[in-house]
Amino acid sequence: MINERWQVTVRSRPLFLSAWLSKEECVDLTGEWAARQSEAHPAAISIPFFGSVIFKPGRNAQIVWLESSANWLSERVNSIAPTILSSSDLRAGDLQIARYVSGGGHFWHQDTSFGVTRGPVFSVICQLSDERDYEGGDLVFLDGLSVVRAPRGQGSVCVVPSAAWHRVHPIRSGVRFSATFWLWTSESSAIG
User: What pTM, to 2 d.p., does this model score?
Assistant: First the structure.
């Protein structure tokens, strides 16, 4: 059952914010990936299967994680969530920084499903790379029967319900960095 407060905050369409991060902040976040490169691991989608977990190919990227308590971006989002999403109950979880290289992408997926009682409410995806640093790699969303392309400008951010279908088209050349975190309510997570 969906909590009534969620119904007030759920946006049906992606919210795009241009230049939400400065170029310097984007460089700092890609630097975090570089500093933790030895911790980077291939991203995979886990699927429960009769009591065990199988991995489905669907994402080709190297990721690192930053705990929400250890990154300034979570604090910034927590401070503006009431303004942009009309909810003071939303909190940012851990931050995932992904590096996509040639051939890398992410097939159509949802970060959670509408109607779940546990799971993120919103996904926040930050474009860290300069759009001239790579070809391909468009982040797109389904909006009804239309496919909507997210802005590619460095520092742009997309806020979308976590149940929205989205994908990253394969990179044809270059490198694309993104930072993603998920907003949770106190009822949807054990955090906070």
Answer: 0.80
